[in-house]
Amino acid sequence: MIEVFPASSRHRADLGWLTSNLSFSFADYYDPKTVSFGPMRVLNDDFVVSGSGFGMHPHRNMEIVSIVLEGELQHQDSTGHTAVTTFGGVQRMTAGTGIIHSEMNPGEDTVNFLQMWFDPEENNLTPSYQTTQYDPSLMKNILLPVVSKNSSTNVSHIHQDLTIYLSDLEAGEVLNYEQAEGRRIFVFIIEGSLWLNEKELLNKRDSARITSTSALQLIAADHTRFMLVDLP
């Protein structure tokens, strides 16, 4: 089953310094149909203007991933970590027993990043933070893992049985993805257009939630950059 969510179906919040497009219920926005997808709880497509951001605030028992698409994102937290991430960078934070952090835009241009929250496999973990870099050129016509339970040098570790892939697929190129029966797939289009199993066409910022489908064919209708998340 492939359920498509057009970009226009997302909830849009505009606070002036922040424009956020919400794929799931978040903060004051609640939709009983979009509370979660497996352990995936949040996908916010955030745009933060220069010099602004999310001041210090707390989290508990959540795996939080930020993938920067444009601009600069600065992280600081109560464990002493600080980092500035740009395109090609990923931030992963385990909130666990409790952590306080901020995410600010230190650059001159607006920063656009995807903020994702996932339920951890186990609660009350020791809080931790990690930033990793991947080579964007390696996304060309493949699914490049950038976050996974099975981490490596350029892949952030997450305390959940999932993998986040990024891909830069040239027009007409085809990728085939297979997973074990009973798992879920989430697809989000960053730029371009993508056919799923030659049935569903996703355009820029559309997403799809896929269940009971262990084999997925992805065909680029034009030059497309997208994210695929393999979930339990």
From TrEMBL:
Gene3D superfamilies: Jelly Rolls (2.60.120.10). It comes from Paenibacillus aestuarii. Pfam families: Pirin, Pirin_C_2. Residues 10-117 form the Pirin N-terminal domain. Belongs to the pirin family. InterPro entries: Pirin, Pirin_N_dom, Quercetinase_C, RmlC-like_jellyroll, RmlC_Cupin_sf. This is Pirin family protein. It comes from the Bacteria. Residues 146-231 form the Quercetin 2,3-dioxygenase C-terminal cupin domain.
